[in-house]
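Re: Re: ligand-bound prediction request (bumping)

Still looking for help on this. To restate: I need the protein modeled with zinc ion bound, output as structure tokens. Inputs repeated here so nobody has to scroll up.
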Amino acid sequence: MGWCALCAADGGWSRRRFLSVMAKAGLAVGLLPRTGGAFTVFDESADVTIGREADPEILKQFGYYDSPDLQNYVAQVGQRVVAVSDTRFSFQFKVVDHPSVNAMALPGGFVYVTRGILGEMNDEAQLAGILGHEATHVNSRHGAKLMTKALGSQIATILGVGAAAVASRGGAAPAAAMVSSHLANYMLLGYGRDYELEADEVGLRHARRAGYDPRRMLALLRWMRRSEMLRGQQLYHGFDATHPDTSMRIAKVDTMANLLIAEPGPLEVKGDEFRSHLDGLRYGEAKSQRRLKIYVVKPGDTLGGIARSELNEEGRRFELASLNDLRDDADLAPGTRLKLVVSGTSPSLDLKLTPQ
Ligand SMILES: [Zn+2]
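Reply:
Sorry for the wait, this slipped through. Here it is.
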């Protein structure tokens, strides 16, 4: 659970697998002089090259989520946020078919959210906050900056050598792998406290400027903290080490959100619209065959009643409340969309998925 693939230990974004993806991408682009010119890993065009080459590898490893509607929707929200950011990059936003609660960015403008994180969010404002955070890592070139710092002298040495010389010494492959390995580390473990705080702050500012309510990001962070406490630290290996302490982060986002709402402009949340795009979304491990079903509240409905009629168990109202970020005695307005977790073999869902 977490951001920027920092929950590598949670659900299979394994460091080793990711490293091999990045190393392959690094080799494919040749992060080194290869035509006699000085190809530096640290300029913006190199960011784009790295991203473009690694993107198909990421999709191959983690799977592209096969819903054009959801893909378009996420991309549209992402473009709306980056449009106010004065970016120099051209962005692509994609949903990957992975159950972990995660989001990450490749240099050059490639941003990914997992189906896992989408399933836990409740509105478009939260999605905008996450995409704004990831886009900030790209725009501020956090990966390149950290690589420069970590590899500075080694890279300078490498770049001082002509392509032919590197090739003849067989130096290109290990050097590219070395660069890729650093980059993969940042993406998996986060970019360090300062850059994460910058991404929080700038991302939230951009989401606000794009018209979204920044307080919804606060709600998502609080959910993450609750979830972290419930599931225990061990799932979140690396969380404390490389990301700012969640409480500190929440406090900062809280302060920031309160300042931002005082600025003029709309404060959109778009909960029902967001949830309507989640209908049929795979939920949890693929083998569990669970999906989200979006239920439209009818007059007189209660969470208990919905749990009884739709999930065959009134006690599941607590789960319903938590999933939808509601109190379990919440008054439900007719027309509200609610997420329900149903089994793939549930009759109501079969009816929906199987053409008659
Ligand atoms: Zn981050």
